[in-house]
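My current task is to audit a protein record that another person submitted. I need someone to confirm that the token line plausibly describes how this chain folds. Take the sequence as given and treat only the tokens as open to question. This is what I was given:
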Amino acid sequence: QVQLVESGGGLVQAGESRRLSCVASGTLSSIYGMDWYRQPPGKQREMVASITSKSVTSYADSVKGRFTISRDNAKNTVYLQMNSLKPEDTAVYFCRAVLINGRVYWGQGTQVTVSS
């Protein structure tokens, strides 16, 4: 099993930056990749960024060039650096771990609110 705890959310002004963290614990050797998803108010959850165990990254078009996903294996932590935030980035941000066997685990989410 894998447990995920996100932190770093809060209220920010448009144009500002914020860094989210996701600390993983449990059977970490079984993790294939980790992702950040978000769920805006009244909308479906959507993938924001992902990083594999070999640090191959991918991003949603809406955040390319503004968000950066990274990982610190020594700290069992995945980060989401969010720059040039926009009001439309307002959402609950979730961390997700995908295991080698295909099983998926989610964190509890952290709220990011961007005011204009």
